[in-house]
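tokens incoming
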């Protein structure tokens, strides 16, 4: 598999080799080459496999891929998520903080929310709550889903308040999330006025 990933002429074969390496942590180091492959599909497969391998030695390569502004966006997205699986949510925090202060690439910000959700660090909940104020609806919805999944009390109140504030499909989408934790919309008296 390592030889195929590093030298086969066909990107489909290299991608399949990367997927195959996910199940063999002893050979996970071979995935580093796949993270630098010129083919986007191989990069995605290698990033996914790296996250599932548990091999911390791949963090540097994943960080390089996630932070490459010229890199293919789907591969950068997968690298952010895989970094969180390996216990490194720092790049996701940076991406989401930058998105919230300056705007930015919505798919990457959504991936950052997903990564912070995977990391499940209580220290990241304020950042997820702040993402409810993103100008991009997909980022707001992803943050709401993460906060509901983590059953964050303050997040649930904010999601409830936001669901009442927004009309139409957006508000309905948020209200649909709330019963997922076995509750219902928070009592308006409990909602933080901010």
């Amino acid at each position: 598999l390592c030889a195929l990933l590093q030298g086969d002429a066909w990107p489909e074969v290299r991608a399949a080799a990367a997927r195959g390496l996910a199940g063999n942590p002893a050979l996970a180091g071979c995935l580093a080459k796949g993270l630098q492959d010129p083919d986007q599909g191989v990069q995605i497969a290698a990033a996914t496999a790296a996250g599932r391998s548990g091999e911390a030695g791949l963090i540097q390569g994943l960080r390089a891929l996630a932070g490459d502004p010229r890199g293919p966006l789907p591969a950068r997205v997968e690298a952010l998520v895989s970094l969180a699986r390996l216990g490194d949510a720092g790049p996701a925090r940076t991406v989401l903080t930058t998105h919230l202060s300056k705007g930015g690439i919505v798919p990457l910000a959504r991936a950052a929310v997903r990564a912070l959700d995977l990391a499940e660090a209580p220290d990241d909940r304020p950042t997820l709550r702040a993402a409810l104020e993103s100008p991009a609806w997909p980022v707001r919805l992803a943050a709401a889903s993460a906060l509901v999944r983590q059953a964050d009390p303050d997040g649930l109140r904010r999601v409830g308040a936001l669901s009442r504030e927004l009309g139409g499909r957006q508000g309905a989408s948020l209200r649909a999330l709330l019963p997922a934790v076995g509750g219902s919309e928070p009592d308006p008296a409990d909602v933080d006025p901010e």
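note: Residues 107 and 175 are 23 Å apart (CA to CA).
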